[in-house]
Backbone:
């Protein structure tokens, strides 16, 4: 069955949370709707679904890669042009440790940023239901629903206090 | 939170994005003035590169002068930003909200400015890059990783990249606000930059994690950077006054002192320039003032230790350096100015609540700190080199030339100019953070009083 996307706009977080409950009473699950806000609300304040992620894996992968690249560069450049100074070994471990530390941290930070974007599902440039008023304090409740349930959802959103209901363009 | 006003989201957007859509004449006047100074500095640097380093005051045995002092100074300023932002985010300090981004942006631009100093200081900037980065594949000659001067670019590169990423991630929600408020080409650009941000719970959750996770990752980098900058000096065996094991923490705490002071100065400046009285309030500079008292005392402890270790060994070169710093004019006058302006005057004044809550006094005291901290670096570098060897035949002193002074003044203008240009394109105060502060604010009744309270999430 074809799915339709709707969005109810609310002026108050309480009304938006109530609308979510109303949708669930109408037979939808938490996975069928999502809130759009201009500011982070405390977790669970809107009754949103639990969010799982694997962000903490990214810095570890980045750190390992950064460390590997740093060791390869520092060891590689010394071995490629072996210059013996004062009879000391060609490979200077303390010096390598410092640059390797920076490489490790750089890798961890870059991969963390990539992870944040990936887990946030960004970038995303396809057209989606949205309203500029969300960044003025309105709360959007986006619902994906079967054609047959559109009128039920609209009724639930209106009764919960939606000031406007938008539909995705066909 | 006693002084905070409740503002609508629309009002917050209007106030904090005001300069992006329409700047005041005052803003353009300052930008124009700073641009002239920066162009003057570019001309001076071009002249120096064209004519050679003889146009500077550098000569044997003092080969590091104003430019390297300025390099260390700007690296120091860069430290406050991310450190302040990261520590306040990790500790969830409520008063962080208006301060974080300005501090982070100051970090980026002061780092960029710092990097230009050693590059042009070499006199042949185009050669500097292949001393630092391994890319000279044709000749097979690589940077010497055993040199502290190669560790430095690796640390600064990491810190600069990390700081840019840190600012960028926290900017995404605000870019979406800008996208929604703008039209035409500007809207297209902000649409691309905001990458399709809509503000779903998932995105906000990841945004909160990003703040914490990146803060935790960037703090060790921040400590390492100034430690490694101090290695430029302390790893040098031949300059006795520099060869000190305490230099790394001493440099780090000095950087924090000058950097946090720089953030206070800049916050008061943008409050005045953009009329942000409702956002940067007395309570914020009061809190920063208290923080500065702790930092200044910690810095003084390290300063005293560094000095004590220096003279305790009774080594000739070290004593000659200390003698030059403290008893030989004009160095002795500079030393006196340094210790009074960096520590005694500001600390004495910050103990008073009225001073900490006065924008004028906090501007004066934080500027004084940075005058002192600039001189501190100068007094480490020049007397250290001037008295580096007992048997040296050339115990020259150093006086900066007009070219060096012009370049140094230009760097101050450049940091401020870049900062203001950033403010023309991006908000300097994170809108979502201010709005979150409003969401989490409440009032509770205790006895007969209603007092403001803030809900704090774990």
Residues:
């Amino acid at each position: 069955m074809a799915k339709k996307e709707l969005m109810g706009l609310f002026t108050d977080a309480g009304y938006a949370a109530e609308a979510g409950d109303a949708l669930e009473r109408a037979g939808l699950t938490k996975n069928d709707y999502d809130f759009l806000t201009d500011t982070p609300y405390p977790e669970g304040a809107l009754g949103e679904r639990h969010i799982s992620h694997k962000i903490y894996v990214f810095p570890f992968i980045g750190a390992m890669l950064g460390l590997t690249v740093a060791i390869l560069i520092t060891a590689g450049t010394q071995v490629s042009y072996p210059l013996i100074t004062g009879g000391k070994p060609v490979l200077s471990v303390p010096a390598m440790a410092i640059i390797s530390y920076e490489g490790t941290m750089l890798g961890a930070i870059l991969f963390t940023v990539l992870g944040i974007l990936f887990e946030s599902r960004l970038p995303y440039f396809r057209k989606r239901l949205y309203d500029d008023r969300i960044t003025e304090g309105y709360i959007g409740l986006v619902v994906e629903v079967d054609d047959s349930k559109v009128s039920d959802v609209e009724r639930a959103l209106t009764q919960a206090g939606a000031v406007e209901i938008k539909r995705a363009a066909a | 939170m006693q002084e905070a006003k409740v503002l609508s989201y629309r009002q917050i957007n209007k106030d904090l994005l005001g300069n992006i859509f329409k700047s005041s004449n005052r803003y353009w006047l300052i930008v124009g003035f700073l641009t002239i100074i920066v162009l003057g500095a570019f001309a001076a640097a071009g002249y120096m590169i064209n004519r050679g380093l003889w146009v500077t005051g550098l000569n044997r045995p003092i080969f590091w002068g104003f430019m390297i002092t300025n390099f260390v100074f700007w690296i120091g300023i860069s430290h406050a930003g991310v450190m302040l932002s990261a520590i306040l985010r990790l500790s969830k300090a409520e008063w962080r909200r208006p301060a974080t981004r300005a501090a982070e942006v100051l970090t980026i631009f002061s780092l960029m400015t710092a990097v230009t100093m050693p590059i042009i200081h070499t006199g042949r900037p185009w050669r500097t890059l292949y001393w630092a980065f391994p890319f000279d594949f044709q000749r097979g000659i690589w940077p010497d990783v055993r040199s502290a001067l190669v560790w430095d670019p690796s640390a600064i590169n990491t810190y600069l990249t990390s700081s840019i990423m840190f600012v960028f991630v926290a900017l995404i929600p605000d870019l979406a606000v800008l996208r929604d408020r703008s039209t035409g080409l500007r809207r297209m650009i902000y649409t691309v930059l905001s990458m399709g941000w809509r503000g779903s719970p998932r995105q906000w959750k990841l945004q909160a994690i990003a703040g914490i996770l990146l803060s935790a990752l960037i703090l060790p980098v921040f400590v390492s950077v100034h430690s490694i900058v101090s290695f430029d000096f302390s790893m040098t065996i031949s300059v006795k006054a520099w060869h000190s094991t305490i230099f790394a923490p001493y440099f780090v705490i000095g950087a924090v002192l000058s950097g946090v002071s720089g953030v206070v100065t800049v916050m008061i400046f943008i409050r005045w320039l953009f009329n942000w009285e409702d956002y940067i309030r007395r309570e914020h500079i009061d809190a920063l003032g208290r923080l500065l008292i702790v930092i200044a005392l910690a810095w003084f402890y390290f300063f005293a230790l560094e000095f004590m270790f220096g003279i305790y060994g009774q080594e000739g070169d070290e004593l000659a350096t200390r003698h030059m710093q403290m008893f030989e004019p004009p160095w002795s006058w500079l030393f006196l100015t340094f210790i009074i302006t960096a520590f005694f005057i500001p600390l004495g004044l910050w103990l008073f609540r009225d001073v900490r809550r006065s924008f004028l006094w906090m501007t004066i005291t934080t500027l004084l700190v940075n005058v002192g901290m600039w001189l501190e670096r100068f007094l480490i570098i020049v007397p250290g080199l001037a008295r580096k060897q007992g048997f040296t035949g050339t115990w020259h002193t150093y006086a900066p030339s007009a070219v060096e002074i012009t370049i140094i003044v230009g760097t101050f203008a450049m940091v401020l100019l870049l900062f203001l240009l950033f403010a023309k394109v991006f908000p300097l105060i994170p809108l979502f953070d201010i709005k979150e502060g409003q969401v989490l604010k409440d009032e509770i009744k205790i006895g007969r009083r209603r007092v403001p309270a803030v809900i704090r999430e774990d």
